[in-house]
Automatic annotation (TrEMBL):
This is Serine--tRNA ligase. It is an enzyme of class 6 (ligase). It comes from the Bacteria. It catalyses: tRNA(Sec) + L-serine + ATP = L-seryl-tRNA(Sec) + AMP + diphosphate + H(+); tRNA(Ser) + L-serine + ATP = L-seryl-tRNA(Ser) + AMP + diphosphate + H(+). Pathway: Aminoacyl-tRNA biosynthesis; selenocysteinyl-tRNA(Sec) biosynthesis; L-seryl-tRNA(Sec) from L-serine and tRNA(Sec): step 1/1. Its EC number is 6.1.1.11. NCBIfam families: serS. The gene is serS. CDD domains: SerRS_core. One of its GO terms (molecular function) is serine-tRNA ligase activity. It comes from Agrilactobacillus yilanensis. Consists of two distinct domains, a catalytic core and a N-terminal extension that is involved in tRNA binding. Belongs to the class-II aminoacyl-tRNA synthetase family. Type-1 seryl-tRNA synthetase subfamily.
Length: 423
RNA sequence: GGAGAGUUGGCAGAGUGGUAAUGCACCGGACUCGAAAUCCGUCGAACCGGCUAAUACCGGCGCACGAGUUCGAAUCUCGUACUCUCCUCCA
C-alpha cells in the first residue's frame, strides 16, 4: 500500500505518477475525498468515546444504583447510540477507502522510464557475446525431446498443457542448476537458505500484493482455501509479517528454491511450446529486508547477484529497466535480466528484481525499530536468482552442438557428476 | 480427527466486572572525577485521529483475533487462530 500521508500531502504528484501506471486520476480524487471523510468521522467517534469514558467514571464515583447514577447511565446510553450510528458510517467510508487503497499500484520510483508498456523499457547493460552457430540452432524443446530428457506430450496426457516431465540428464540438469544457484547465493553472496511452505493463506497473498487484485492468476485449493505459491517471494517476504525487527539486524537476505504455480490466465496462445511458460516451474528466489535509505543500492546488488549466475554459466544476457507501465503492481523499480535464446534470436526474461520499498511492508506489517526507538516500515526487495526452467532452456539452446548433443557449462560439471556432455 | 491446558509491554509475571500490579531491562535524573552499586521517575508497547517543528502535547484504541452482554470487560458469553501435552493417524 502507498503511504497514505504521501497521498494526502502531495495529491497532484501522486495522480501524475500513478497515471503513468494506468491509474485514472479520478480514482485518486475519490481516495482523497474518502480519506478526508474518514478522518472527520474518526475524530467524531473518538470524541463521543471520550465523553462516554468520562461519564462512565462518574457513574462509578456516584454509585450506579443511586438516582444520580441512573441519570448518568441514561446519558451514556444516549451517547452510545449515537456512537454506534456514527461508527457505522465511518466504517462504511473506511471500507470504500480501503477498497481503493489496496488496489492502487505502488508509486514508480524517480528516474525510471515513463511509458505505457514494455516498448518503453530501457537497456542498462549487456554481458557476453551472442553465440554463433555453423548450423541452424534448434529450439530447446526439440533438443530436449530428441535427447529424451524432456517430455511435454506425456505431461499433457497426465496434467494438461504447460506441464513437463524432466527425465535422466534433463532432471539431473534441472537439479544441477538450482543447486549451483543456491550454493552461489548462500556461500558467496550472503543469503540465508530457506525452504518455505508452498501453500499459503489469503492474508499472506495480500501481504505481497497478489491479493485481492490478481487472485485469478493463482491456484487456490478448494477444500482449505490455501493458495499454491506463484513464487517463493510470497512465503519469504511474509516470513516477518506483523513483526518488528531491530535496525542492527538489517539488511537480511533470504534465498529459497521452490516450485511455482501459475494459472497463466490471459496468456493463452503465448509461448505455447517449451519450458518458457509453465503452470508449474522451479525458481530460486532472493528476498531482502532493508533499511529504507539502502534499498535502491540493495536492488543494484541483487540484480548483480542474479547476473552472476548467468556470467558463471557463460550465458549472454542484458539488463533492462522496466518502464512505469511495465513495472509490477507492488514494485517501485524493477530490473529484468534477459538471457539470449538462439533459436528465436531474442532476449527472454529469466530474472526480475524489484524494490517494493515500503509497499509490501505496509500490507504485511513488517517494521523495524530504529536506534532512536521509533518504529517504521522497512523496505522489501525480491528477485529471481533465477527461473530454473528458463535457465535449463537457455543452456540447451546456447550449448547445443551440431550432432544434437549439449555441452555442459563448466560450472555445472561437478553438479552433473562429471558429465561434460548431454547425449 | 479426539481430549485437556494456554496466549497480558523487550523479557518475566499478577490481575474472575470499575478502567492494565510488580520485577528485570531500557531511558532520564540524583549521587560520583568517572563508572558500578544505590536512590528517584504522571517512564514504559504497537496503531488511529487532532494540534504540530516535534518521536512534544491532547484524545481514542489497546490484555492472541472477531463478535456479544454491560453505564463500564484482560476479567462474563459465543466463535476463530495459534502454541503446548496426551490419544489416534501418518511421509
Amino acid at each position: 500500500m502507498i503511504n497514505p500521508k504521501i497521498i494526502r500531502q502531495h495529491p497532484e504528484e501522486v495522480k501524475a505518477k500513478l497515471k503513468t501506471r494506468g491509474v485514472d486520476p479520478k480514482e485518486v480524487d475519490e481516495y482523497i475525498a474518502l480519506d478526508e471523510q474518514n478522518r472527520t468521522a474518526i475524530a467524531k467517534v473518538d470524541d463521543l468515546k471520550r465523553q462516554k469514558n468520562e461519564l462512565s467514571a462518574q457513574v462509578k464515583a456516584a454509585d450506579p444504583k443511586s438516582e444520580k447514577g441512573q441519570a448518568l447511565i441514561k446519558q451514556v446510553k444516549k451517547i452510545n447510540a449515537e456512537t454506534t450510528a456514527v461508527e457505522a458510517e465511518q466504517q462504511e467510508v473506511a471500507d470504500q477507502l480501503n477498497y481503493i487503497a489496496v488496489r492502487l499500484p505502488n508509486l514508480p520510483a524517480d528516474g525510471i522510464p515513463v511509458g505505457p508498456d514494455e516498448d518503453s523499457n530501457v537497456e542498462v547493460r549487456k554481458w557476453g557475446d551472442i553465440p554463433e552457430f555453423d548450423f541452424t540452432p534448434k529450439a530447446h524443446w526439440e533438443i530436449g525431446e530428441n535427447l529424451d530428457i524432456l517430455n511435454f506430450e506425456r505431461a499433457a496426457k497426465v496434467s494438461g498443457a504447460r506441464f513437463v516431465y524432466y527425465k535422466d540428464a534433463g532432471a539431473r540438469l534441472e537439479r544441477a542448476v538450482y543447486n549451483f544457484m543456491l550454493d552461489l547465493h548462500t556461500e558467496e553472496q550472503g543469503y540465508h537458505e530457506i525452504i518455505p511452505p508452498y501453500l499459503v493463506n489469503a492474508q499472506t497473498m495480500f501481504g505481497t500484493g497478489q491479493f485481492p487484485k490478481f487472485s485469478e492468476d493463482v491456484y487456490t485449493v478448494e477444500s482449505t482455501g490455501e493458495t499454491l505459491i506463484p513464487t517463493a517471494e510470497v512465503p519469504l517476504t511474509n516470513y516477518y509479517a506483523q513483526e518488528i525487527l531491530d535496525e542492527k539486524d538489517l539488511p537480511i537476505y533470504f534465498t529459497a528454491f521452490s516450485p511455482c504455480f501459475r494459472s497463466e490466465a490471459g496468456s493463452a496462445g503465448r509461448d505455447t511450446r517449451g519450458l518458457i511458460r509453465m503452470h508449474q516451474f522451479h525458481k530460486v528466489e532472493m528476498v531482502k529486508f532493508s533499511k529504507p535509505e539502502d534499498s535502491f543500492e540493495e536492488l543494484e546488488k541483487m540484480t548483480l547477484d542474479a547476473q552472476e549466475v548467468l556470467k558463471r554459466l557463460g550465458l549472454a544476457h542484458h539488463v533492462i529497466m522496466l518502464s512505469t507501465g511495465d513495472t509490477g503492481f507492488s514494485s517501485a523499480k524493477t530490473y529484468d535480466v534477459e538471457v539470449w535464446m538462439p533459436e528465436q534470436g531474442v532476449y527472454r526474461e529469466i530474472s526480475s528484481c524489484s524494490d517494493c520499498v515500503d509497499f509490501q511492508a505496509r500490507r504485511a506489517m513488517i517494521r523495524y525499530r530504529k536506534e532512536d526507538g521509533t518504529v517504521d516500515y522497512l523496505h522489501t526487495l525480491n528477485g529471481s536468482g533465477l527461473a530454473v526452467g528458463r535457465t535449463v532452456a537457455a543452456i540447451l539452446e546456447n550449448y547445443q552442438q551440431a550432432d544434437g548433443t549439449v555441452k555442459v557449462p563448466d560450472v555445472l560439471v561437478p553438479y552433473m557428476h562429471g558429465a561434460t556432455v548431454i547425449k
